[in-house]
Amino acid sequence: MKVRHIFAVCLVLAAAGVSKAKSEETEYLAVFMEGKKVGHSIRNRVTADGKVTTTNEVSIQVSRAGAPVKMNTTETSIETIDGKPLGFKFVHDFGRMVTTISGTVDELWIVDLTVTSMGKRQKKTFGWPSGAVMTEGLRLLQIEKGLKEGLKYSVKRFSPLGLRAFEPEIHIGPKRNVDLLGRVVALTEVKTILKAQTGGEIVTTSYVDEDLRMQKSITTTMETQVEMIACTKEFALGENDVLELVDKMFLASPEPLNDIELAKSVIYHLKPSDQATTLMIPSSDNQSVEQLKQGGVIVTVRPVAAPAGAKRGYNGKDSNILEAMKPTEYLQSDYKEIIELANRAVGDTKDAAGAVKRIESFVSKYIDNRSLSVGYASAAEVAASKVGDCSEFAVLTAAMCRAAGIPARIVFGLAYVKAFGQRENVFGGHAWVEAYVGDKWIGLDATRTPKGFDAGHIALAIGNGEPADFLNLATTLGRFKIDRVEVNKDE
Fold first, then answer.
1. Quick one: 83 and 210 in the same domain?
2. What is the largest CA-CA distance in the chain?
3. Residue 409: which residues within 8 A CB-CB, separation 6 or more?
4. What's the CA gap between 306 and 352, in Å, rounded?
5. Are 235 and 292 within one domain?
6. Which of 91, 364, 421, 444 has the fewest Cβ atoms surrounding its Cβ within 10 A?
7. SS3 letters for 168-221?
């Protein structure tokens, strides 16, 4: 699955904390994962000409099966002195691919947006989420609310990553003595609870001084603890440790699942890691979900076959299916290069089932460098580089389906593998595609052809491959174990 949980972590870290009110100030923080220093954060706030410009850079480097993966994100908010949004910029640099998202907000609360990737620009407009604030607006609200223990409130915070407003709850806790790399300081505890659409949540516990400057934060997601600690510039930018993330990507199977590709269905009994955990697993045509009173979940995966004779295209009115036909920031189905690849793959076939299988087969051969080093790439970037792993296969497959007039969406979850390195009989983090054919969502997995999608796949989040989908995944993966499996090869 690569570093998708790091992508979700970057989303959370970019939103954490505020800066002290001065004409200019730069703060440095070290980023730790599982106790190892893996990067840094630099926060800069400048007040000039009636505007406040706040920039937050997060840089993280980890290893995945020995392949180094580096992710840099930089978020800039431009606001008035009283916190009104004026503009924003977000840059994510994943080594091979750099994408810039920038926008300006006019007096009518209309955003003029520009997305630049691989030298190409896309422009569009959208309405600003009502009541949403950015960094300075959040800082002013926190000053207004204060740090009285027991105080609880919510805030609507806009994030350029995903172009949406998240609504975290903020809980003010007591003062505590906090260790800041050997320096013990009395700080106020602030918990930020970010809820995903699936019902899960990510909790960040921060410790702030009297000026509301964040000195330390702790976030746990996908069984990985991420800490940010205020420190000197030299330490923040200094040498990092090597953190191997492969172990975080796998879940043990209770038994070997021989010839899983031949199974008509598989019933998975999922057990939460603790009684307080409520698992929110999505249902689809390929997967049904039963919530148990004890907190567990029974997931039945039964792959559906593509209806024969269905034509390409969709003429219905279902908003979710219509949404799955549109180009997005990560699925650029309107790009010339993507359209050309789709035409090459599909040829003159009008049959939707045949078209999606041709696209699946085409992508499996087209990406000729299966590398774990790519942080996260869009379909257009994959089309150009031909490099990546499961998520790159998925975004290119989905974009080509949409370019061919077939609704498609990205699925994140787990897939069974007989062996991976020294590990045997495990479920690994994975990404694949569902395409809408006839009246069914059909599973496609270009990474695993010719076997493709089978009952060894458990979906945990479904969407367009955007950051919000990673948040849904981050609140589920790592919070359960597979307690029991029932394989049915005859039905």
1. yes
2. 72
3. 324, 398, 433, 434, 441, 462, 463, 464
4. 9
5. no
6. 421
7. CEEEEEEEEEEEECCEEEEEEEEEEEEECCCCCEEEEEEEECCCCEEEEEEEEE
Q: What number of CA atoms fall less than 13 Å from residue 351's CA on the CB side?
A: 8
100 with 67, same domain: the answer is yes
pTM of the model: 0.77
Is residue 231 domain-shared with residue 302, that is, in the same domain? no
pLDDT of 5 reads 47
CA distance 398 to 407: 8
Q: Is the predicted pLDDT of residue 348 greater than 60, yes or no?
A: yes
CA distance linking residue 26 with residue 337, whole number of Å: 42
Query: C-alpha 35: how far from its chain's center?
Result: 23
What are 241-250's pLDDT values in tens digits?
988 776 667 8
**What sign has the CA pseudo-torsion 138, 141, 146, 150?**
negative
Q: Which residue has the tokens 């009994």?
A: 269
Residue 4 structure tokens: 């998708």
Tell whether 316 and 213 lie within a shared domain. Answer: no
Residue that the structure tokens 């691919």 belong to: 97
Instruction: Please compute, for residue 380, the number of CA atoms within 13 A of its CA located in the half-sphere on the CB side.
Output: 22
> Of 209, 244, 279, which residue is a domain's last?
244
Question: Which domain, by its residues, includes 356?
Answer: 249-488
The tokens of 214 are what? Answer: 């964040």
Among 209, 227, 244, give the residue marking a domain's end: 244
What radius of gyration do the chain's Cα atoms show?
23
pLDDT at 225 over 50: yes
